[in-house]
Design brief:
- By secondary structure, the chain is mainly alpha-helical.
- It contains 5 helices and no strands.
Length: about 130
């Protein structure tokens, strides 16, 4: 009995993603939930990404991935902002670090929201979104 070779994937996946891990094309519902995880950070910080991650993690790999990324970004920004504001009482430049971290985070939220709306899989740099939730 001869074994048939496995077919090679025809879709070019981003670096770091195995074939089959993406679960196929995304649906509008998956894209909407992933978009909610990012855009919701403007109003409620980490609550929308947490909600998306907890409610959609068993239903959609796409929403789980982006909910996790958005949650890691929100937690990282909160930690850097909190430490910087605390250290501001000893040195004034820590306030600039806090403002810079929030500005970079919001820029990445907008960037990620546009990518998610197209159905793209992407990763945020580990420098700004520490992989706390895996």
């Amino acid at each position: 009995m001869s074994r048939r070779p496995r077919p090679t994937p025809t879709v070019r996946l981003p670096d770091g993603y195995a074939a089959g891990a993406h679960g196929g094309p995304t649906t509008p519902d998956e894209r909407q939930w992933a978009l909610t995880a990012y855009i919701g950070q403007f109003l409620l910080w980490a609550l929308p990404p947490l909600y998306v991650y907890l409610t959609k993690k068993n239903r959609s790999a796409y929403a789980r991935h982006h909910g996790r990324q958005a949650l890691n970004l929100a937690i990282t920004t909160g930690i850097v902002f909190g430490i910087s504001v605390f250290l501001y009482q000893w040195a004034d430049f820590f306030l600039w670090i806090a403002a810079g971290s929030v500005t970079v985070s919001m820029g990445l939220v907008v960037y990620s929201a546009t990518r998610v709306n197209r159905g793209d899989w992407h990763r945020l740099p580990a420098l700004v979104a520490w992989p706390i939730i895996k």
